[in-house]
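Worked example

This section walks through a single chain of length 163. The input is the sequence exactly as stored; nothing has been trimmed or padded.
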Amino acid sequence: MSDDNIGAMIAQVARLLRRSFDERARGIGVTRPQWQVLSLLNRNEGINQGGLAEMLEVEPITLGRMIDRLQDAELVERRADPADRRAWRLHITPKGHALLTTLQPFARETFELALEGIDEPSRDALMVMLDRIRGNLSRRVPGVPACLSAEEALPVAEDGPHV
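Given that input, the structure is written out below as tokens.
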């Protein structure tokens, strides 16, 4: 095994995936965070802003600004939550769905480029392993309050966190 640890390798691959997607989608005028919001909304239509912020691991105020911009662009709409007058439910507009349809080939191209030369059984095995890692890390760490971010919950050595 090389000197890279799994955390560094996953971070590098994730960074390169994001960069590759950004290069493909740049001409459409949508940012990757906007695409992420639209993609998650597509799978979780009607979610409230707090739930979506949690899924994206961003502060609610940050997501609120993103939703403002997407709403101004007529890609997303806020609808009153019938169960809570203070909350808003988020929905993708037809224009937002059309944009997602346009972006899907860029995502597929990015993944195909990333997985080039890897056969189907190995791809399947990779997904199983990554799903297991995600599940392992999604479990609550004993003794760490749920309100802490992942970075705050990581043990920190004198020279910084080691992942």
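What to look for: Confidence is low (pLDDT under 50) at residues 145-163.
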